[in-house]
Amino acid sequence: MRISDGDVVARRWRNGALLSAVAALLLTGCSAPEAAPTDEPAPITELTSSLPAATTAVDEVRWGLVEGEPRSLVPGADYNFVWPNICDSLLRVSPDFGIEPGLAERAEFVDPVTFVINLRQGVTFSDGSAVTPEDVVFSLERSRQDVMSPYFGAFVLVSTIEVTGENQVTVNFTAPDSIFREAMTGGPGAILSKTFSEQQGPALGTSAGEILCAGPYALESWTPGSDITLVANDGYWDGAPLVQKLVFSFIPDGTTLTNALLAGEIDGAFNVPPASRAAFEDSDEGRLIVGPSTASFSFGPTRTDGPGANPKIRQALSMAIDREQYIQTVLNGLGEAQSTFVAPFTWEGSEAASVYQAAYDALPEPAFDLEAARALVEESGEDPSVPIRIAIPAGSKELSQTAAIVQAAAQQIGLTVEIDERQAADFASLFLPDPAARESVDFLATAGYQETPGVLTYPQLFVLPPEIGGIFNWTAYADPEVVGAVQAARTTPDPVGAAEAYVAAQEIFAPELLQVTLAGAYHTTFLNNRLTGVVTSVASYSSPWALHLGGQ
Amino acid sequence: MGARTVRRLLSKIGALLLTLFLSSVVIFSAVLLTPGDPVVALAGGVRPTPEMIDAIREQYQLDQPVWVQYLSWVGSVLTGDLGTSFVYKTEVIDLIAPRFGITFLLVIYTLVLIVVFGVGSGILAAVRRGRVEQAVLVGTSLGVAMPTFVVAIVLIWIFGRVLGWFPVYGPGEGLLDNLYHLTLPAVSLAVLYIAYISRITRGAVVAQLSSEHVETARVRGIPPSRIFRRHVFLNASPQLLSVAGTTIASLFAVAAIAEHAFGLGGIGVLLTEAAARKDLPVVQTLSLMLVALFVVLNAMVDVVIAIIDPDSARPRRDA
Fold first, then answer.
1. What residues in A contact B91, CB-CB < 8 Å?
2. Would you state the pLDDT for residue B70?
3. What's the pLDDT score for residue A537?
4. What's the longest Cα–Cα distance across chain B?
5. Is the pLDDT of residue A92 over 90?
6. Which of A45, A240, A372, B136 is the most exposed place for a label (fewest CB within 10 A)?
7. Could A224 and B94 be called an inter-chain contact, meaning their C-beta atoms sit closer than 8 Å?
8. Portion of chain A with pLDDT greater than 70, in percent
9. How would DSSP label each residue in B280-312?
10. pTM of this prediction?
11. Is the pLDDT of residue B217 over 60?
12. What is the Cα–Cα distance from A229 to A61, expressed in whole angstroms?
């Protein structure tokens, strides 16, 4: 799970808004396509998780990264769309969030505490050298032993990782772990060459170094400030890509990206600015593809006291916000209302999907009821004259609009909200473990998403005590029944049993609104008309989404 | 070289070093004082655990007193080590070098536009009073009021989207393609400066045209073109040159706006992003580079002025 720290996800649509607005003002005489459409955007009726595989070869595809230049290509070192095409994982997330084989032909629990990985025969890194069980042990141990690794948490229940056969690695656990297999579909299961990585040392995966993995593409060059070029790995186990050269350009400005896409100078990009939806839909150059996602916009409490920690205040604010209007204003219609903070797409590919879905459907939809909200403020016992402070990262148009909407809604029910807009580093400091960093605010608004399946992955961070993994549990939420059920869900090997334990917990914690979810955001892709074959769901964060890319 | 010139040169170098030292202290403390913890940048976009924070603080000496951090930084800069970026984990020099070329080219291109159109239109307005002067004055009033990013939007719209004459994104490959790609960014940066320089040129030239020595030259029957070259322009140029020095240095700083709007990825964008992410080594190095550039350019301008107009170097002015 990634929470935007103002630098990760939230920045994805930054600045575009202001520029388009100015452009619209200036150019009304020229009927600017970027101007806000006068009529409401059409509702999205169908979500596309992948485009048909390409059939013709293409020399070069230019891809825009609105997230900017990655810090590193080592899986997990930074969120980006580049590494999943370079480094394959043991398992693969399918576009509809199911689990498929990857570098491992099979990787599964043979008993509740033993996970056996059987590597694919003859699979090689992009330089032609064989992927060995030693590489697997090396890659997994990297995350397990390094407290600096973002994947450290996925390995907390692991006791040993050993080579147990010519093509086999066995992972032993201290307790059953129902989310380990899902983690192996993403960065935690990505395999790097041991020899190569050790030779590279600290330069591994940075612009000054190189990286060797077994994905469909290999790193050719990285020019800091400009682009990263990948070339097809012709020896890829799942067939060579049809694109010879895949060039990633760093375009952190949403408007610049929009212009480059519409002019055909860039072939495609994910997370395109929703504000330019009409221009994308009218384009003759390419098309906008709307896909399912686990991403959502929300705000949540930051400390154990104050109005944010009071569930009644959170419920009141939630009831004062019209979700339909929120989705139109902030996402330009490219999203949907969501009943709790885990998006339904998260369990789309799970064996226990029906259990999760039934429980989700039983949750009340977010209601818009100002009367009831005012009554809740009354009941809360909080002093309404004390301003509530909400922090947002500077430069994110969507979060700035979110905060303004929360502010207006609060005013309707007699509360005062102050917006605290912070620079990237300052906003990100709010996520440090020391609670002192969060004392000056009551809420923070974020956009977050989950890049691999696994329902438990995200909510456990909010409902468990901090010492056993509840790193975002800043209100000291502690319900013994919830803790018991969530822990049971993590340690129940049977997927249906785990789902049942989880939904029992969800029924208790969902009404507490530990995150006030405002909307689920769709995964957006703009792609030039000459191309096809891209994964267009949120799975593109962690799967080789450009494997089938090529000509129509 | 006379003793006086050597003394002047030494005092210039001394002033340069002092300025650099003071700016380094100011920049170092300014970056430290801004809100946000550099540990976040070092953690690489993930939520750090307490163990991770301690490990990072120790590794990057962030647990040391500020003056120790400053001295250690100055020490490594003096030995040619500009440090390692907190965000990209690569040598700062490796981040700056590939980006510098494009910013440099952009600044030079913009400067050419400023000199040709700014100085040109200023002279035109001063020499041809009446309609031409009015047109230049109105144009420059508009120009100084147009923020660079607004100009960029208008240019992208007209020349990129409607007419399709110029690319709207990226620096291109090869010098000619670079120049083609940099045209719109350079124009958008230049507009404001053209207006500004045009007005200054006009003022300076008008002042010279009505000065006594020009009157005298006219009365003596010297041809007007010769009067213009030898008396008017030459005498007006020190004023233009001193403005030019600050203009070039500030262009490096404001280039970020055009780099951002046109996706150029130069040092301007690097600096603004590094500042927002609290990437101390990058911010410090780039800021110091800009300060050094500013000081060096001004010193060079002083020297050129002294060559063109030795009188200005002396503490008396022509009556």
1. 208
2. 84
3. 96
4. 85
5. yes
6. A45
7. yes
8. 92
9. HHHHHHHHHHHHHHHHHHHHHHHHHHHHH-HHH
10. 0.82
11. yes
12. 10
β-sheet bridge partners, residue B312: none
Distance of CA A186 to the CA centre of its chain: 11
Q: Alpha-carbon distance A372 to A395, whole Å?
A: 34
Q: Output the CA–CA distances (angstroms, integers) from residue B249 to A408, A552, B237, B289, in the order listed.
A: 44, 49, 19, 10
CA atoms within 13 A on the CB side of A175: 10
Q: How far apart are CA A535 and CA A531, in angstroms?
A: 12
Give me the domains of chain B, ranges plus CATH numbers: 3-35+82-308 (1.10.3720.10)
What's the complex ipTM?
A: 0.71
Cβ of B99: how many Cβ atoms within 10 Å? 24
Residue among B169, B182, B279, B280 with most chain A CBs within 10 A, to mutate? B169
Beta bridge partners of B319: none
**If contacts are CB pairs under 8 Å, which of residues 248-277 in chain B contact chain A?**
260-263, 265-266, 269-270, 273, 276-277
CA distance A95 to A93: 7
* Single-letter code of the amino acid located at A186: G
pLDDT digits (tens, 9 = 90+) for A379-414: 999 998 899 999 998 878 889 999 999 999 999 999
pLDDT in tens, B32-65: 777 777 777 676 656 667 777 787 777 777 778 8
Task: Give me the CATH topology for the region A296-521.
Answer: Dipeptide-binding Protein; domain 3 (3.10.105)
Structure-block tokens of residue A94: 């399918």
Judge whether A499 and A489 are in contact, CB under 8 Å. Answer: yes
Tokens at residue A39, please?
């009529």
Q: Please list the alpha-helical segments (H only) found in A246-290.
A: 254-262, 277-282
**Residue B171: closest C-alpha in chain A:** A226
Alpha helices per DSSP H over A130-243: 133-145, 180-183, 194-200
Out of B41, B49, B154, the one facing A425 most closely (by C-beta) is B41
Q: What is the mean pLDDT of residues A39-44?
A: 72
Using the Cα atoms of residue A351, residue A354, residue A355 and residue A356 in order, give the sign of their dihedral: positive
Mean pLDDT across chain A, nearest whole number?
88
Per-residue confidence (pLDDT) for residue B233, from 0 to 100: 79
Task: Give me the DSSP letters along B26-40.
Answer: HHHHHHHHSSS-HHH
Local structure of A288: helix, strand or coil = strand
B174 has pLDDT over 90: no
Torsion sign over Cα B203, B205, B206, B211:
positive
Nearest-Cα residue of chain A relative to residue B280 = A425
Question: What's the CA gap between A127 and A219, in Å, rounded?
Answer: 11
The SS3 assignment for A175 reads coil
Place of tokens 């040159």: B241
What lies within 8 Å, CB to CB, of A211 at 6+ separation is: A73, A74, A86, A87, A192, A196, A197, A200, A204, A205, A219
Q: Are B47 and A469 in contact (CB under 8 A)?
A: no
Q: In this complex, do B36 and A423 lie within 8 Å of one another by their Cβ atoms?
A: yes
Closest Cα in chain A, distance from residue B178 (Å):
13
Interior angle at CA A409, CA A406 and CA A413, nearest 5: 130
In DSSP terms, which residues pair with A301 in a beta bridge? A443
Whether B41 has its CB under 8 Å from any CB of chain A: the answer is yes
**Calpha distance A132→A194 (Å, rounded):** 9
Candidates A7, A8, A80, A148: best to mutate against B (most CBs of B within 10 A) is A148
The maximal CA–CA distance of chain A, rounded, in angstroms, is 71
Q: Cα–Cα distance between A11 and A154 in angstroms, integer?
A: 26
Q: What are phi and psi of A172, to 5 degrees?
A: -105, 145
